[in-house]
């Protein structure tokens, strides 16, 4: 094993030096057994990581899955806020992330200090935060939400009470449109990958594939455009589906074989969709919509993580307790259908 680890190098900020072959898979299996670990992989991970994981899905579903297992160690192949959520929901377990530098542009788009200031300007408002936020932000939040239940969460708030929604402006716009609430203030944050899936790209792909269905994540910059095009009759409204990643997988199981489906989200999702419905032609709206942070979880990073117990993620108790309360407030409203 030592010789194998000596091959690991960090180049361009990413752990490299290992191919995801059978030898690698055997080593991962042995180390996982030795540590009594469970490997979780987000839908946006590279195929090799998704395939070797015990569970693949969205971040909240994975965190809840980890809490139900008897594993001592949770290895979260995703970005940092996801590993934090796993620690919040499983405080007695060791949580590892294969690369602690795997961050998130959306989670970074609002800090705890910024939210604290925003709250002070609207003291009577209820704060609804997307799960794609840091533990510190969750600790200042009244109710968390996922992309699949954001509308239900906001509708659970008294209609006369102002809502501060953060951090994703595109998901916030979707919620405002669906609820019809005028008293919702939206933070101007975004996921750089989803924001880059533009209206122009959507229009080009829809024109080139006039009979295709559209699976659109509400974080996307093209989400409002899809609604507009459907409203104008340019795209058949029945073809437009605004979905979380979990919702995309559910709908994929019902898709007709040989049908083309245009997918507007991070391209890692295509691996799961194609596995769920191999007869469907899933194509990305933007084939460059790849999150470099997600792709920092390489085969080499996972091997290092299990071999050396790095990198451990911890959340201070006083923050974790408050953050857990905001997650539990969401769960009390109803089971999240598909996470982010």
UniProtKB/TrEMBL annotation:
Gene3D superfamilies: NadA-like. Keywords: 4Fe-4S, Cytoplasm, Iron, Iron-sulfur, Metal-binding, Pyridine nucleotide biosynthesis, Transferase. One of its GO terms (molecular function) is 4 iron, 4 sulfur cluster binding. GO terms for cellular component: cytosol. The keyword Calcium does not apply. Its cofactor is [4Fe-4S] cluster. It comes from the Bacteria. Pathway: Cofactor biosynthesis; NAD(+) biosynthesis; quinolinate from iminoaspartate: step 1/1. It is found in: Cytoplasm. Its EC number is 2.5.1.72. InterPro entries: NadA (IPR003473), NadA_sf (IPR036094), Quinolinate_synth_type2 (IPR023066). [4Fe-4S] cluster binds at residues 104, 191, 291. Iminosuccinate binds at residues 42, 59, 130-132, 147, 217-219, 245. Its main location: cytoplasm. It catalyses: iminosuccinate + dihydroxyacetone phosphate = quinolinate + phosphate + 2 H2O + H(+). One of its GO terms (biological process) is 'de novo' NAD+ biosynthetic process from L-aspartate. It holds the Pfam family NadA. Binds 1 [4Fe-4S] cluster per subunit. Belongs to the quinolinate synthase family. Type 2 subfamily. HAMAP family: NadA_type2. Catalyzes the condensation of iminoaspartate with dihydroxyacetone phosphate to form quinolinate. This is Quinolinate synthase. It comes from Corynebacterium lipophiloflavum (strain ATCC 700352 / DSM 44291 / CCUG 37336 / JCM 10383 / DMMZ 1944). The lineage of its organism: Bacteria, Bacillati, Actinomycetota, Actinomycetes, Mycobacteriales. The gene is nadA.
